[in-house]
Amino acid sequence: MTPYSFFFSLLTLLDVLCIITVIFVERKNPASTIAWVFVIAFVPFAGFAAYLMFGSGFHLNKKKRYAFKLISDSLYKQVLSRHIQNADTLEQSESLSHARLIRYLQADGGQYYTRNNAARIFTHGSEMFAHMREDILRAQKHIHLLYYIIRNDTLGRELVALLTQKARGGVEVRLIYDSLGSLLSGERMFRKLRAAGGRVEAFSPLLFTLSSHLRLNFRNHRKITVIDGQVGYVGGMNIGEEYLGRHKKLHPWRDTHLRLVGPCVGFLQERFLMDWLSVNDVEPRAEELRRFFSAPLDEEGNLGVQIVSSGPDTATSPIKNGLLEMLYTARKNVFIQTPYFTPDDSFIEALRIAVGGGVDVRLMIPVLHDHLVVGLATQSYAWQLLEAGVRVYAYQGFLHAKTMVFDGEAAAIGSANIGTRSFALNFESNAFLYGRAFAAEYERIFLQDQENCLRLTPEWFLGRGMLSRGAYGMCRLLAPLI
User: Fold this and answer.
1) Reported pTM
2) What is the pLDDT of residues 356-383, one digit of tens each?
3) End-to-end distance of the chain based on CA atoms, in angstroms?
4) Rounded mean pLDDT of 221-231?
5) CB 326 within 8 A of CB 361
6) Neighbours of 450 (CB within 10 A)
7) 148 contacts 223 by C-beta, under 8 angstroms
8) pLDDT at 297
9) More confident: 80 or 364
10) E-assigned strands of 296-380?
11) Distance CA 469, CA 463 (A)
């Protein structure tokens, strides 16, 4: 046997072993399994390498659990006791119609439902970042930020300079960025911040070692800011000039972000600290963490909020299942916005059931795409749902908002797209918000966005031509991987 034939035989054996692992060991969902078998079988060697970097997840069962309990319940009782609503007594509360959803998210998502919160909705980055800047300038104790993308552009550099200024003034600054999402930013961007005493960490650094390359596919997609434990930001906006509407091709850029005050910010703080202790591989000590939790500001509202997070470290997908529960309990309407729509069968069936039950279901996706394969897969799924009676709208620009509002009573806004990557591979955080005034405001925003949309029809898709429709099928096949 020549060295060449031996090497070829070895790689073929690795491909076969990889396929066996995908089918019998990994126990992925059927769609992901079929997609990976297809890639490994039809793209030999390269498919095996791609699976090692992007598909393998067995290490998560071996390493210490990422989401551990940070602080005892006594801390919450000390700081937030009058705001926490016991899920067992919701029948007597204003949230009776959402009792089952709240109970589920508390049981599975592990987050309390709190009352007396207030939220401000931002649909333009310039307004949101202006408010965030003012809040950061007022910070007295600590500033915590976690973002998938922090660009090395004008906005990113201005933010880092502001954080550096606050760190020099004695404020504790902690920042986490995802090493893949912020790949082009570079370490030099944060040198002055570190020199001023700020602490900066990369989530899952791209070091191709045996222990690190198997984590490449699991990214921290959250977008969180917490200031003094009293003001929080969560939603779809990263740190970059495109969120100010300055992208050359994807214009207009439309997104949604929230500014939160009230006891729910304590749970956003908890989420950040979980991630911080994880990237530093430090065990939590309640007595050392108490200082990060403060009594809520006097500026309170009447909004119920749950901060819900999910990721590949959790046995279930609380965000996905919370959205499914919204679909199952809706009586009048469900309005959905997402840039990437690659749902699994359970989500498609929930949409079908809602429409069949007389619910007005509307899906809004972008006309423009920043990722061609995901964009074509999104259109393929949208085409399928038209046949089920879902009303599909294509925003004339790039829609990056990830929102769902139903019956004018409750909404979910955060970082999670509707698809396999967000529901199974990324670490995500969403705010579930309960209140008629808030939900009515976001319904109004959705309907206003709808005026800038093209209503998609079966005829529109049929007019795309055979080549485009063939691309839909191929991209849809790859959807569970992306």
Assistant:
1) 0.86
2) 999 999 999 999 998 888 888 898 899 8
3) 39
4) 97
5) no
6) 15
7) yes
8) 72
9) 364
10) 303-310, 333-337, 341-342, 360-366
11) 9
For residues 254 and 400, the answer to whether their CB atoms sit within 8 Å is yes
Average pLDDT on 145-156 reads 97
How far is the C-alpha of 116 from the C-alpha of 118, rounded, in Å? 7
Give the tokens for residue 16.
Answer: 């076969």
Q: Is the dihedral of CA 324, 446, 85, 271 positive or negative?
A: positive
The burial of 459, by beta-carbon neighbours within 10 Å (0-12 exposed, 13-18 middle, 19 or more buried), is given as exposed
What is the rounded average pLDDT for all residues in the chain? 83
- State the Cα–Cα distance between residues 161 and 64, nearest whole angstrom: 35
β-strand partners of 85: 113
Angle at 249 between CA 246 and CA 255, to 5 degrees: 55
Q: What is the arithmetic mean of pLDDT over 86-97?
A: 56
Question: Which of these, 57, 452, 114, 100, lies nearest to 260 by C-alpha position?
Answer: 114
Residues 371, 375: Cα–Cα separation, whole Å? 6
Smallest CA-to-CA distance from 368 within 253, 241, 246, 237 is with 253
**Residue 71 CA to its chain's centroid (Å):** 24
The pLDDT value given to residue 307: 95
Catalytic machinery residues: 221, 223, 228, 400, 402, 407
Whether omega before 252 lies within 30 degrees of 0, making that bond cis, reads yes
Cα 112 to chain centroid, rounded: 19
Reduced 3-state DSSP string for 383-443: HHHHHHCCEEEEECCEECCCEEEECCCEEEEECCCEEHHHHHHCEEEEEEEECHHHHHHHH
Percent of the chain residues topping a pLDDT of 90: 52
Reported confidence tier of residue 425, pLDDT bands at 50, 70, 90: confident
**C-alpha 139: how far from its chain's center?**
26
Q: How confident is residue 31, by pLDDT bands cut at 50, 70 and 90?
A: low
Q: What is the C-alpha to C-alpha distance for residues 258 and 260, in angstroms, rounded to an integer?
A: 6
**Residue with token string 């007396």:** 116
The β-bridge partners of 406 are 334, 410
State the DSSP H helix or E strand holding residue 202, giving kind and residue range, or none if neither: strand 199-203
What's the burial of 38, exposed, middle or buried (CB within 10 Å: 0-12/13-18/19+)? middle
Q: Does the structure show a pLDDT above 90 at 303?
A: yes
Mean pLDDT on 126-151: 98
Q: What percent of the chain has pLDDT over 70?
A: 73
Element (H, E) at 88: none
